[in-house]
Amino acid sequence: MQNSRLTFVSFTVKWCPYSRRLQDSFYEASELYKQKYPDRKTIWGNVKCEEQKELEEKYKIYKYPTLKVFFFGYLMTEYRGSRSAEELMEYVERMENTANLVKLNEVESLTQWQMHVVPQKGTLILWFPRGSPPFELILKAIALIHDRLTVVVPIATNLLEHEEHKLWFSLDGEHVQTFDGSITNFEEIAEWIKQKSLGMVRELTFENMEEFAEDGTPMLILLRKKDDNDSETNFKINPFMTDGSILKAVLRHYNKEIDDLPFLIIDQFVHSYLSPWNGDEIFANGNIKKFVADLFNEAHHRKYHKKLDDLMKKITDEIEKIEKESELEEKTTKDPGTVGKQESVFKQLKPAKTRYSFAKEEL
């Protein structure tokens, strides 16, 4: 796979009807692609998970079928779109074109890189001559996280003959960090870009929610109104932002309305915590940092269980109160007295002595 620019792999099992259905369209798409692009080295592959358990475990396949995309042997993303042959083929065509994956923003001078800063997106300054081996290698690494970065490059005519070549990354659009590793080591470059990109805010949607949930990492989520640009600008941390109107179930869960936006939560997939602030208070100095820090020092967890403990104590106290009241009522109930010898009232039912019938022994 490392010699192939793009590898498209389906992970299937025999017992799954959806896997069997996908195999037909996947094979059809691969044949159409090979006919249209006979010279391309794109690989279309299938992993039969019953027979290749090590690959199933390595790539964390938990559902079937699963489609994953590899770029020069490195896992890029998971395909979650339509599974028709036409859609599969169109998707691979788009992914094959680096120009579609990575938009290059040209500047004449290195001092102009801030012209292309996009809020909440990391900015990568790739200051190498266009078409040079380092330039092309870094582009491959950028493609692995293509949807998260703004890439700034010199104009094609600027060969940088008298300038130092640099690879910079900026998270806030003001400060830059310099890559000081080997410019020929793809793995090192890709890992550096990946680590630097972790601080970027990403938009959470129905389309990508499954991908982030599968990761299992706690999510810091700012639910805001769709046109709330101020919150987007103020939110400088590694969370997700989402349009609160598309997650109405979340609003109902927290007893919130659209007018209550924005508000902030942390979701661990076990427990979920709501920040104590609303609106502009969220972005007050240090509040978000404290909210996140309290997750890792377990302050949120302790508060959560304290609420449960308080509730259990309240229930226990109420039960004890009821039991005491019941005991008191029992003591104050009138004593029925002791059981004594009483004259029978049934003797009044004996036959009268003046009866006209005879008892058996009298006959």
From TrEMBL:
GO cellular component terms, semicolon-separated:
endoplasmic reticulum membrane; endoplasmic reticulum-Golgi intermediate compartment
Q: Which GO terms describe its biological process?
A: protein folding
Q: Which GO terms describe its molecular function?
A: protein disulfide isomerase activity
The keyword GTP-binding is assigned to this record: no
Which terms are listed as keywords in the entry?
A: Coiled coil
Q: Which residues form the Thioredoxin domain?
A: 1-97
InterPro entries per record? ERP44 (IPR052643), Thioredoxin-like_sf (IPR036249), Thioredoxin_domain (IPR013766)
Note the coiled coil stretches, chain numbering. 305-332
Q: What is this protein called?
A: Thioredoxin domain-containing protein
